[in-house]
Amino acid sequence: MKYMFYPGCSLHRSARPYLDSLAAIQEKLTMELQEVEDWNCCGATEYMSVYRAPAHALVGRNLALAQQQSNGSDTVMAACSACYLNLEKTENYMRTDEELNNKVNTALAEGDLHYDAGSIQVRHLLDIIYNDVGMDRIKNLVTNPLEGLKVAAYYGCMIVRPDVNQRWNSPEYPTVLEELMEALGAEVIDFPMKTHCCSGHMTQISSDVAYELIRRLIYGATHYEADILVTLCPMCQLNLDAYQIEMNNHFDTDYVMPILYFTQLMGLAFGIEPEELGIGREFVSAKQALAKIGAPVPDEVPEKGKPRRKKKKEEGLPMPQVSTRFNGGSK
Amino acid sequence: MNTTAEPAAPVREGEAATAEPSFLRWIENNTPGDSRLIMCIQCGTCGGSCPSGPDMDHSPRQVFAMVRAGLKDEALSSNTPWYCVSCYLCTVRCPQEVHITDIMYTLKSKAIEEGMAQVDAAKVWSETFIGYVEEYGRSFELGLATRHNIRHRPMGMTRAASLGVGMLAKGRIDLTPQVIEDVGQLRLILWKAKELEAEQ
Ligand code: SF4
Ligand code: SF4
User: Fold this and answer.
1) Quick one: CATH architecture of A2-125?
2) Are residues A171 and B92, on separate chains, in Cβ contact within 8 Å?
3) Which CATH superfamily is domain B19-117 in?
4) What is the ipTM of this complex?
5) Of A41, A161, A200, the CB nearest to B133
C-alpha cells in the first residue's frame, strides 16, 4: 500500500518519537510512504489567525506538490491532527468555494504550481492503519501482547472534528483507537474525556487556561486508573507530557501519567525494542508503566515525575540534525 | 460603530432592519465555504460546549449576535476569538451547522487588520509563528519559545528555559531551523495571496 506522506514540522522535532515509531512499524504494516518533497509548514492554528486566503495558499502549495509528485497514490497521509485538518480543510474549501479556489491557484501560479481541487485525498495515519491495514492483519503481527497494560485512548480534537469528510464514527465518542489498543492486547479503560481539548496553543498564551485543560485530562485518566495515556497528535503529546510537571506544580498535585504515541505501543506489541520506538524521550517516564508488560525503557530516562533541568546529555550538544527526508525506516 | 465604508448591502431576512448589514456580509464573504452565520438561532449550544467559555468576554453566541447587529467594533475587540482553542466542539454540536470555529479565525484576522486585537500574547504568538514560516518555510520551536517568551512569558522565562533544555536533552528540539529548498517560491505564493486578500 503506497501513500504520499506529509510529516509536518512537529514530527521532525518535538514529535520525533512519533516519526521513529512509525518508521519502525511501517514495513510490518506493508505501508510504503513517499514523503512530499520540499513540503512547508501547514500553518498550524496560527497562519489562519492572521491571514485568510494566504493560509490556504500555504497549504495549497503542499497539495500542489503532492499532486505533482504523486506516483501511484492520490492519498496524502498526515500523522499530526493539525496538519491533517489543515490539508483536509483547504482541499475541501478549494473544491467547494470557487472564489477561494481561484485565489489560491492565482497565488500558486506565481510559483509555477497548480492544484486541481479534488485530486488528492487527505487521510490521517490512524484511519489508514485501521481501515487499510485492518485489525486482522494487526492482530497477526502481535508477538508481545500488551496484557495487563491499562490504556486511556485519547484523540484530542482535530482528528475527529469537524470531520470534513465524515471519516470517523463519532466526532465526540469515536472508538477506533480503543479497538486498535484491544487488538494489541491492552486493557482499554473508559475515558469520557477522550476528545476534550489538550489546550492547544494556550500553553503559549495563558498558562492558567492551559494548566486547567491539561489537569482535567490527566485527572480523568488517573481517576479511571490508566497506566498510560495514548495519543495520536504531536500537540496533545507535548502539552500533556512536557507541561504535566508544571501543571502539577501549579495545582500542587502529583499526577504521573506517561503519554505515548499509539505507534509506540504498536511497536512494542510487534516486539520492537523500546529504544527504536523513541521510548525514553518522554518527559514523564513510561518506565514503571511499561514494566507491567516487561518492556525495558532505556536507562538514561531520569526519575519519574522530576523536572529534567539538571540532566546532562552524555553525547553532548548540539543535537544530531534530523534529516529533512523521511528515511523510510532504514537506520 | 459603523466603521465600514462600503455601502450597506440590502437587508435580508434575519438582519435587523436598523443594523449595518455589511459587516455580517463581510464576515460571510471572507470565511471559506458557506459559514452559515446567518442561520444562527441564538440557542447557546456553542457557549455551553466551549472549554474556554469562562475566560471569554462573550460567548460565541453573543459575538454572533453582535456581528448580526452590525456592532463591528464590539465584536472585533472581544477577547472571545483569541481564547478559542479550535476544539470544534461547538461546530459539531451547533444545530444550524454554523462554521463557528472558522468564523473565529475570520474575526481574529480582521481584528489584527483593524488594529483591534485584544489579547496581545495570542496575537504576538500567531505573528511570531508565521514569521518563522515565512522565513524558513517551517516552524522553529526553539526560536519561537525564546522569542515569544522574552515578551510574554506565559509559563515564566525560567520555566520555559528549563523546558527548552529538557527538550534538547530529549532530542526533541533543534538548535537551528530547518529551511525548505524553495523558500523563494513559497514567498512568491504567499505575497501574491496577501495581495489578493488586500484587494478584497
Ligand atoms: S450553537 Fe449554532 S445556532 Fe446555537 S447560538 Fe451557537 S452558532 Fe448559533
Ligand atoms: S472551537 Fe473555539 S469557540 Fe468553539 S467550543 Fe472550541 S474553543 Fe469554544
Assistant:
1) Up-down Bundle (1.20)
2) yes
3) Alpha-helical ferredoxin (1.10.1060.10)
4) 0.88
5) A41
